[in-house]
Amino acid sequence: MISSPLVIGLDVGTGSARAGLFDPAGALLASASHPIEMWRPKPDYAEQSSEDIWRALCMCVRTVLREADAAPERVAGISFDATCSLVAIDAAGAPVAVNDEGVDERNVIVWMDHRALAETDEINSGEHAVLKYVGGKLSPEMETPKLLWLKRHLPASYARAAKFFDLADYLTWRATGCDARSLCTMVCKWTYLGHEGAGGSWDAAYFQAIGLDDLFTLGKVSSDIRPMGTNLGPLSAPAAADLGLTTRCRVGVGIIDAHAGGLGVLGALWEGKAECDLADLETGLALIGGTSNCHMAASREAVFVPGIWGPYYGAMVPGMWLTEGGQSTAGSAIDHIISDHANAPTLTAQAQAAGVTVYELLNREIARLGSEQGLGPDLTQDLHILPYFLGNRSPHADPHARAAISGVSLDRSITSQALRYYSVIQAVAYGTRDIIASMNRAGFSISKMLVTGGGTKNPLWLQEHADATGCTLILPREPEAVLLGSAILAATASGLYPDIYRAMQGMSGSGLVIKPRTDTSQYHAAKFQVFQQMYQDQLRYRELMGKV
User: Fold this and answer.
1) 77-127 pLDDT per residue, tens
2) Disulfide-capable partner of 30 in 68, 328, 431, 457 (CB 3.0 to 4.6 Å)?
3) 15 by DSSP, 3-state: which?
4) pLDDT exceeds 90 at position 358
């Protein structure tokens, strides 16, 4: 039976809810995952259910307690991270439909939902001061375009909704009954100006100009905004019963999932040091990989990078500005290229029969081809991919961009499939290179990446990202760095550490280090030029077709 104080980090990603039980040194004692449902009623629509998400989290918490043989009263704190999805509830706390069918259960507009493209373009055409702090343009993945869409297209739902939340804030409210919002979610997705005044402020003129000032006059959004990891108080009795915990467990203000990953990896830069010097964090980029990729750079001074989100004050590391690049499709682009090939059913059947993943089979085929032909990354020299299936988040801030492939033949074999897979991994890496180059031109000096997420389980993904970007990759000691980031907030809220800095230092550490191969740099430089040219060509096509 475990007797020391413990904390739980809770993570809601695009496809699953997860829980991780940690000790104060950051050791993962048990983890659990449960799928969450997603509805896709129309192209570019994505909806979820807050009730389904809460049930999944509760199952995960009970599972980790059981697997670690940990008594509930030993859990001193919990905190949540989640995707930046929009939640609507009524005055009784019940779900409110965000869909044409009027199904209240589907009350979450998922981050990747791009239904509000027209509203995004309309807002971006205005001269709004807040746009300076989102790289010059809002994304349809942010909340104000989604809210404007709801008000225009589903006015009854908008009127019936008593509160709108970012998903992480909904979860802390559900856990405590306290309607306090995270500085992270509000600054990054709602245009809150965290650097103004004592604790930040809203730009009332912006909301009035776009027709959403009633969010505040009607109390649909709280102005109680607190830094991540702040102690919100104990679990409410209903929440404690749902989760299988006690009302002595403290709840920390939550965070966006990628930002939790940033906290979980950046602490490694303070490993073994006497002081938590903020300057150390300026030397690396946190790459949080998954369905999408997020690229988190912290700085003591505000750095403005056109087309890249931020700078956001205090949105990840307290007292520092966050500059956030991202790729709307990363892991999802790789999976789509694999599943869209004629050989996909055969590959899936072979992987199941062999008890391995499709990625392992494709990696084996690439290794075979490379050995036979005496080639490495240049196996893909005649195949080029622009992976903008959901537009470009950074550095072009172009939600209208789309994917393109050059060099496709009629080959339906695993060889053709493996080469496309290899090429799209490189393409995703070039997207990261594009983001880093933009950041460095603006004043950063990024030469290493601290990486976590699904792609880091794939050695081909890791080496290609090192080679294509020229950066040294540092993996965290704890692979579940997103869960660890939420656990860091829980440890701070429960008093196990005096602040987030010390929690990051005490619970994080570095693992495997991967250096770029210099003999591939010329090839990647040439292919990166093709990557950039493919986007410029697409802009030209749009101009010719009268779509600009």
Assistant:
1) 999 999 999 999 999 999 999 999 999 999 999 999 999 999 999 999 998
2) 68
3) coil
4) yes
Other C-beta atoms closer than 10 Å to the C-beta of 122 total 14
Length of the chain: 548
Tens digit of pLDDT for each residue in 380-425? Answer: 999 999 999 999 999 999 999 999 999 999 999 999 999 999 999 9
Distance CA 230, CA 492 (A): 7
* Run of H or E including 405: strand 404-406
How does DSSP classify residue 130? Answer: G
| pTM, two decimal places | 0.91
At CA 430, angle to CA 525 and CA 137, rounded to 5?
A: 125
Q: Are 115 and 149 in contact (CB under 8 A)?
A: yes
The whole-angstrom separation of Cα 117 and Cα 157 is 20
Closest CA to 235 of 220, 225, 248: 248
Q: Where are the alpha helices (DSSP H) in 442-515?
A: 459-469, 481-493, 500-507
Rounded to whole angstroms, how far apart are CA atoms 399 and 418?
A: 28
Please say whether the dihedral angle defined by the alpha carbons of residues 64, 67, 68 and 73, taken in this order, is positive or negative. Answer: positive
d(C-alpha 533, C-alpha 298), whole Å: 30
| CB contact at 8 A, 133 and 144 | no
Strand partners, 514: 473
Q: Nearest Cα to 330, choosing from 459, 226, 430?
A: 430
Torsion sign, CA atoms 311, 299, 472, 185? negative
What's the pLDDT score for residue 547? Answer: 66
